[in-house]
Write a structure and sequence with these properties.
Order of helices and strands: EEHHHHHHHHHH
Structural class: mainly alpha
Distance between the termini: 21 Å
Radius of gyration: 16 Å
Number of strands: 2
């Protein structure tokens, strides 16, 4: 579907197709997190003044690169989505991994070759983050295979490689989004289904 100002955005069926094709075996539990983040973003969107379709697509596919590689999956996700002309979700696939736009902060986190480093540096310099980018960054910290909240999420996902600036940034994102919601955060969550993963999870 086409969204003014955002270009082509995959609809729900296309999102599900991406995720189901990316599912290899029961170790691919990242797909659960991707779908939970996507559906939560979709439900929060109206309160945040965002388009639910764009929110769903951006959050659901932010880590689709993991379907091909576990190393620097943000670059692979960008390539996958860009190849299908989904340029905005492709950008979110990168921005999700860079909540702070200073590449020097990631030198001990990501192993980038010189060409990749130049590309990411230029991307961070040129691309202006939107509320979709910020929402996806926040959601991917507060979810694992279920909702864990900010404190537990930072404990799980931010090891000693991440400077304190990152924790401060995620607190800022929470303080930015939560006051805009009309309900408690937990009211926007869906439950992950345990049977016949991932098909019944995606087909509700």
């Amino acid at each position: 579907m086409y969204k003014e100002g955002f270009g082509n955005i995959p609809n729900k069926d296309k999102i599900i197709d991406y995720l189901e094709k990316g599912f290899k075996d029961k170790s691919d539990r990242w797909i659960i997190k991707s779908w939970l983040c996507g559906k939560t973003a979709e439900k929060m969107a109206e309160d945040l003044g965002l388009d639910p379709d764009i929110a769903l697509a951006s959050a659901s596919l932010a880590q689709i690169g993991k379907s091909s590689t576990s190393d620097n999956n943000f670059l692979e996700g960008f390539k996958i989505l860009r190849a299908d002309s989904y340029f905005f979700p492709a950008k979110v696939a990168i921005s999700q991994s860079f909540p702070l736009k200073d590449l020097e902060l990631y030198k001990d986190i990501y192993d980038l070759d010189p060409k990749e480093e130049e590309f990411i540096r230029n991307f961070l310099y040129i691309y202006d983050y939107t509320d979709y980018d910020y929402l996806v960054q926040y959601l991917y910290v507060i979810f694992d295979e279920n909702f864990v909240g900010l404190e537990k999420g930072m404990e799980l996902f931010l090891d000693e490689s991440y400077p304190a600036y990152f924790r401060e940034r995620f607190y800022e994102l929470e303080e930015y989004f939560l006051p805009k919601l009309k309900k408690e955060l937990e009211d926007y969550l869906i439950r992950a289904k345990k049977s016949k993963f991932p098909y019944k999870l995606f087909r509700d």
